[in-house]
Amino acid sequence: MDFRSDNVAGAAPEVMAALLEANKGDVSSYGADPFSAELDAAFSALFDHECKVFPVATGTAANVLSLACVAPGYGAIYAHQDSHIVVDECNAPEFYTGGAKLVTLPGESGKIDLAALDAQLALGWTGSQHSAQPSAVSITQATEAGTVYSPDEVADIAHRCKAHGLKLHMDGARFANAVAGLNCAPADLTWRAGVDVLSFGATKNGAMAAEAVVFFKPDLAESFLYRRKRGGHLFSKSRYLSVQLLAMLENGLWLRLAREANARARELAEGLGKLPGAKVVWPVQANEVFVQLPTAAAEAMRQRGALFHTWSEADSLYRFVCAFDKTSDDTAALVQAATAALK
Amino acid sequence: MDFRSDNVAGAAPEVMAALLEANKGDVSSYGADPFSAELDAAFSALFDHECKVFPVATGTAANVLSLACVAPGYGAIYAHQDSHIVVDECNAPEFYTGGAKLVTLPGESGKIDLAALDAQLALGWTGSQHSAQPSAVSITQATEAGTVYSPDEVADIAHRCKAHGLKLHMDGARFANAVAGLNCAPADLTWRAGVDVLSFGATKNGAMAAEAVVFFKPDLAESFLYRRKRGGHLFSKSRYLSVQLLAMLENGLWLRLAREANARARELAEGLGKLPGAKVVWPVQANEVFVQLPTAAAEAMRQRGALFHTWSEADSLYRFVCAFDKTSDDTAALVQAATAALK
Amino acid sequence: MDFRSDNVAGAAPEVMAALLEANKGDVSSYGADPFSAELDAAFSALFDHECKVFPVATGTAANVLSLACVAPGYGAIYAHQDSHIVVDECNAPEFYTGGAKLVTLPGESGKIDLAALDAQLALGWTGSQHSAQPSAVSITQATEAGTVYSPDEVADIAHRCKAHGLKLHMDGARFANAVAGLNCAPADLTWRAGVDVLSFGATKNGAMAAEAVVFFKPDLAESFLYRRKRGGHLFSKSRYLSVQLLAMLENGLWLRLAREANARARELAEGLGKLPGAKVVWPVQANEVFVQLPTAAAEAMRQRGALFHTWSEADSLYRFVCAFDKTSDDTAALVQAATAALK
Amino acid sequence: MDFRSDNVAGAAPEVMAALLEANKGDVSSYGADPFSAELDAAFSALFDHECKVFPVATGTAANVLSLACVAPGYGAIYAHQDSHIVVDECNAPEFYTGGAKLVTLPGESGKIDLAALDAQLALGWTGSQHSAQPSAVSITQATEAGTVYSPDEVADIAHRCKAHGLKLHMDGARFANAVAGLNCAPADLTWRAGVDVLSFGATKNGAMAAEAVVFFKPDLAESFLYRRKRGGHLFSKSRYLSVQLLAMLENGLWLRLAREANARARELAEGLGKLPGAKVVWPVQANEVFVQLPTAAAEAMRQRGALFHTWSEADSLYRFVCAFDKTSDDTAALVQAATAALK
């Protein structure tokens, strides 16, 4: 009953099989292997748009290498105050951009409050030598609260970016879960809505360690190769990164796995939501469920073997994340543990 | 006949098997998995010394995170002018240290010339506010020329470091090949000789993508966790990095593989060395062979399917690297191609 | 009637005279001149404590070089959301620290809200590899709102710093005005209250361009010389920086000038405060006055030649800063303009 | 008899007078003062070309802010191995560029050896993800050896820059001495020869602390304002920087002072050159003289009160620098001391 995160899971069998297959024989290194050569085409097909794609091993690398391509050291990046780049990456965005400032914005259920963003943009910092130069907005999809921005919501932010000369980055560590949750075309949620660059996550969704940085405007990627190498993120045996991504895209595996994870989250939400004393606080639109529980009940669940994160001790708020390989039996067991604990 | 680099090879079967085994079940993430928990003990046993060990995925990451722990942004790091950190890491050392200067030193067959190092240290920059502060020396083992520093040679450099308050880093991307070549104890080549921190390479030697940063003085590692994370090098599914390293250490696999690779290099050197018109220019002490050949002969070999790097066009110098999985048949085929080409 | 800032003023005659005097003859450069040699003793006497002092030319340089000595690139610095280092230094703190994060805190009238600080410190980020490491608090004295922290208020923050292993930096761009306003010993407001390093401002208070970084704990200054040089802030003709600071300290000029400026601000506050339609919003404790005025009245004052900043357009809030050389006639003229405008 | 450097001198009377004059009254700050407003026009007239000009207080700031505009963190900058940016700026170039690599080149008498530059450019690093990207060449005028590049020599380097897509920076800390030495138009030595950006030095030549960054291609300056501010190099009372530069340009003061200094150097060279046992080693083309002397003689001169730098202890090589305000009596006194010492 491990619902602490989707990264407690291993990799999907299809990914492991692809790795074994790719292990055969000698191939060129540093991105010149035949698997890496397929990435641009594979993602361009997926997004119905010409993409420039670079594989890296971690979500933080994907995020901060992306951000470094759209914000200089004297720039400002606007992001939700609870976002991963703000609270969970130990200043990696500042490091890779050479010192850009993350301007934090509030917002309900993990989504940037548009009025707060407008207020920041209205400060008119652009062109003032004293001020960090407004450069980019970064949104998370699905958000840290397990919610998703609709294509229209993304476009609302993108319009503001365009109007003020900013780029729009999407941290898609759980992009698959968002697309699965919205049941929309990947294109609708990204470049059609105005996203410039996407961190396409695969690790949480069943890869071993693989993320794709997807540029929808190739000219933004001009310096990427150099930034990736000087970040230490170019794999010599690059085949192993690329083949994971290809395996995820093959036959829609990425969406199939994400739909499973999302279905488990809905089961959890349903099961926990009707228990007396439990309250699901945010819409369950991806693979995460946030539940308020009496502290004693949470403790009792843990004694029964359930693993999950305390999101806010003050609010008795707990997070349950469903990995791609959780089963309905797993969620049922958790609901049972909760039922017992809440008695 | 791919002798371009040891990174054109795949991973050893033992490593793949370990990855498959580690793929089972849920485990804690971000270094709290049971495999990562074994690293310190495994390497401490290997080196007969208390070590603090951190897995990362690339050699560049290992090198530059190490260097960032021993040199500030206003520091100077002394390294061979042909070393990987100087010519092949796209300013990653400068990036991670916050701007330290790599002071390049000449030296025969890939090894730092001691007189050149002495001349630099004699400048007396320490304490001068105008000057990069002497902070560390970095040596490569085995060197880019396929040679190795003996324990005494390492100690010669280490003594100078100690005398001037510098730390000694070893880029051990091919550390296994060096140990195999010298047939010495890992300890003799590192902490006993005065090395402070080692990039222990596994990728070139049969891992998929795994290197260990090994601190022989734990206090130097104080900031490592934060530097690794802000570099984007902390794996969420950390088990996959650590298990590769454990598999390499298990039953001495790392040395067994390196010995094979070295043996192949000796076969090549012997076979090529006696051909008329071919000259092996540096001692073959690890898994690399550098051979001068008439340009036309090199071209003819390539037409016969041999793959290898041109090391210096001006000198008609070519590099042949033997991966762990090359066979005596492979080297024989290359020698045959050379024989035909040189006729 | 130029009340836009204290930096619209020139330098005090005493400072100019000292510069002329220092201009004579050859002296050693780069800090080895006889004026620079006096700084440590002069400030140690002023603060009744052993100090390590470094002159620089700008307030931003003083702030960010200080901060770089107390916070690493993976660190977090807590500061008021309106502070100069947060909104007016174009990411200089991030640049000089190598990427530290400025965590912004709210607070009435320019002072950090203690509960907000406590909430941040209670997050327990220290030791978590995912999180910027809590490293320092920076407070501004006098604040951007023209208020001052009392010695007790400084100590309240310092206690929290000590309890959590943080350093306390004071941006004293208007430190003289704060000391003059409180009529306390400089020591009481700094090291006795727990301040570790102070940016002692002189430029706004009558110097041409000179600030002193004052370390109350000499060991924190270990890397300062190198950081200053690589920031490009070491003057070759260093005498000109140091002599300005000495002139300010001589016979208490710094306090005399600050008292004048503060007196002018009180005159303004009194004069404007009793006008119908005008409201002084924050206590006037230094040399700045913040007044709410009908927009039309502010406009009318400007047409009469009054110069001042709009602090908040939304709140019709205006800032009036009194330089050291403003006279009672100047303030009377401004009040007269306001009186006329408010009719 | 202080010939240690031109920075042991004070400021020229004309500069002090201009500072006093500029001290009157209130003016806008942060570059919006009337003096700063004149800079672009004044330098554009001087160089017979549209220039974008920014004043800063130190030569290091001028150099590294320039370089940061022409080289990214993953870039390579080619410079002479003895140049100020390489050996005397404590990694400021690396800091401001975000980690660019200074590739050092040899060369007689302070000038870059063209063959060595060609060899570097022939490596073909451009576009290789492993390599620092060739971005700029920086030359020093006059050089650290007191020699000057002729306009043709500058053009020789500039052609190479253009052919490889590099920018050309000139560190003109002693630009005035070079122009005076060559008796050429400032334009001939800069943009007409292919220089993109110039650090125009005034401090060593009689200013208190003022240098101008002069962009001959305005689009290169796009980010300068932000880089200057985040470097802490924007003066609040900016009038004091700008008026120094204007005073230097007025009525050709800068050239008049440089001609004086150069004349003194020639006097020294002549006087010392004919002494038995003394040898002037490099052509005296600016205001510096490098002389080989028996160590004992140098010591004897110092005992007679002569101050000068030991350039190379191994070579018994000494440097004598003539500031703008040295007189023929001063040089005669030094020659006399040398004559006595060499007996």
Task: Please describe what this structure looks like.
4 copies of one chain form a homotetramer. By secondary structure, the first copy, chain A, is α/β, with parallel strands linked by helices. Chain A has 2 domains: 12-253, Type I PLP-dependent aspartate aminotransferase-like (Major domain) (Aspartate Aminotransferase, domain 2); 255-342, Aspartate Aminotransferase, domain 1, CATH 3.90.1150. Chain A has helices at residues 13-22, 34-37, 39-47, 59-70, 84-87, 92-97, 114-121, 151-164, 175-182, 186-189, 224-230, 239-249, 253-273, 295-303, 328-342; strands at 52-56, 75-80, 101-105, 133-140, 167-172, 197-201, 211-215, 279-280, 288-292, 309-312, 317-321. In chain A, strand 8 and strand 9 form a beta hairpin. The longest helix of chain A has 21 residues, at 253-273. In chain A, 63% of the residues are buried. Chains in contact: A-B, A-C, A-D, B-C, B-D, C-D.
